[in-house]
């Protein structure tokens, strides 16, 4: 996605060639001198006003990364037009876009490798813009509940704790099946308990676990056969949490 926002070196060479051709043609043609000093363009506006326009445009844009299940009728969203206007407009708008637009990354089965590859290929200026963006969201999805889900999550959390990019990702869940959500939450709980001596990594696991448990609570409350929200599954989950808290207190003592 982000690579589409850049122009290749071939594009630059082609632009330079076309510019030289226009310059040569202009030298061979009569030069118009009337009212040229009075011409106004978008770039005649003050930089502060242009930035306000860029922010308004970027606030209406959502960039979707790695959508795993696009529908047949769903078309690929075009690149924002301001990135294609000209070089100056692209250079001015891109940092605002990356720091303002909603950017959503769909992650399936805790496989964060595609996201790591994307962020690892960004320029320092692009990472700086993304660090200022409060609208970065990771949507956790489930597909097969594979055996490598646990090491995938561990690898991601370790990378987050040691990485210099420090992108402010928030988490959400898009897991339609309650059993799958329980399965993933259990893997996150086990990892959380095993990382007691690595507080920074443990903190990242806790962020993921809190979102999974929040989604699990919503799903359980929505099931049929509940009485005021106190069904058997709810009691089981509550008992497990109390037991974990008690064990933690005993270890601490």
From TrEMBL:
It comes from the Eukaryota. InterPro entries: AN11006-like. Residues 1-35 are annotated as: Disordered. Residues 21-35 have a biased composition (Polar residues). Residues 8-20 have a biased composition (Basic and acidic residues). This is Uncharacterized protein. It comes from Zasmidium cellare ATCC 36951.
